[in-house]
Amino acid sequence: MAAPARRLQLTLALLKPDAVAHPLVCEAVHAAILRHRFLIVRAKEVRCGAEQSRRFYREHAGRFFYQRLVEFMASGPMWAYILAHENAVPLWRSLMGPTKVFRARHSDPDSIRGAYGLTDTRNTTHGSDSPASASREIAFFFPEFDEQRWYEQEEPRLRCGQLFHSTQERLLGAQPAQVQIQGSAGHHCCPCPQRCPEWICSGSCVSSHKSESCCPQCC
To answer: Is 93 annotated in some ligand binding site?
Structure first.
């Protein structure tokens, strides 16, 4: 008898302004997310003003890098993801690699930061450091997302592979009756959120949605 699937965990992931400024880096990070079989529960482009950035990083207030970090995070658009996986928090942090880019390049060159990070501030991605931080950070960027409801109603069915895609709400949800998977060989998920913001994936295309925002290679 196969072992029961482990409970899914949520984490928040950010593609920072330095990553979003380079579409090829966006593609590579998105491909890494799918390759490691994360479920992308929600995704959206965000812009933070200086005050929002201060609130998000308030735990670092007073440290020498705080103002530089705040200014950088407010310097351009980012992409925010809610990711689900059995061990989403530690797995995403492992995939990102060390915060310090010099260390990442030498100790974990295949990590996201090792491959694409520029400096300790411009290090491509952010990830929650604990389940408690994940809950707080998800609420910060996705205030409409009901985490408790997701764990009670969506997570058990997602864990069993029962998926549906809502293009209106941009979420990957649980289908109570049957799995609804659409698409064909000619339809796949755009790897770049800048070009095709309507996708939500679980490693293969859960649904194909053609819109004016999609790049022609996708749709």
So the answer is: yes
